[in-house]
Design a protein that fits this description.
Elements: E1 13-16, E2 24-25, E3 29-32, H1 40-50, H2 68-71, E4 74-81, H3 86-97, E5 103-108, E6 111-116, E7 121-128, E8 133-140, H4 148-159, E9 168-175, E10 177-178, E11 183-184, H5 189-192
Parallel strand pairs: 2-9
Antiparallel strand pairs: 1-3, 4-8, 4-9, 5-6, 7-8, 10-11
Helix pairs in contact: 3-4
Length: 193
């Protein structure tokens, strides 16, 4: 691994679009700068050996250039609401979707921040889960960063959604957003060539 220069060198590693604390994810990406050219399969094996069980490296590719974070335009999330009946979830989703703006608040390092979470939500649907209901949501990544819990706060503000049990939030994908197909693509597709 390459290290920065200067008085206090640190590893040159960058996490792009990291999931919020408490969320599961199947689509985390990071960039590692290397001090020399190494076969991606060797990097994959070394990372797998160093990481604990349950953290699996799926793929290692050589970057074709450009910023990985610029390729991560949207994230697709699955949010399971174990104590919310499907009819309640569907009604809240419909109330949210018809709004042009849904204002929510979140405490940040700089204090309480108010922002429109509706603008970042490009797709939202409710469906049945084994217990309760499930939301399928696509969130456009940008500033301010909108997280799944912000969407839940927006569903409460716009449609009165009441969530008691902690929701199970899992990111299924992140990458370029294709509005025509409604698909979150593979951000590494050009590097796999």
């Amino acid at each position: 691994m390459a290290y920065s220069s200067g008085f206090n060198p640190h590893p040159r590693i960058s996490y792009a679009g990291a999931a919020p604390t408490g969320s599961a994810s199947e689509a985390e990406y990071l960039e590692i700068a290397l001090a020399q050219v190494v076969d991606p399969a060797d990097v994959h094996a070394a990372l797998d050996e160093a990481l604990p069980d349950g953290l699996d490296v799926l793929d290692v590719v050589v970057s074709g250039g450009g910023s990985l974070s610029d390729r991560l335009e949207a994230s697709r999330w699955q949010i399971v609401l174990t104590d919310v009946p499907l009819a309640d979830a569907e009604a809240a989703v419909e109330a949210f979707r018809v709004q042009e703006e849904v204002t929510v608040e979140r405490m940040t390092k700089k204090g309480l921040r108010t922002f429109n979470c509706r603008a970042a939500v490009v797709a939202l649907a409710a469906g049945a889960a084994e217990q309760g209901s499930m939301l399928d949501v696509v969130i456009r990544q940008g500033t301010p960063s909108v997280r799944p819990d912000d969407v839940l706060a927006g569903l409460k503000a716009a449609g009165g959604l009441q969530v008691g049990a902690p929701p199970l939030q899992r990111r299924l994908a992140q990458g370029p957003w294709d509005e025509a197909t409604g698909h979150v693509g593979d951000p590494l597709i050009d590097d796999r060539g």
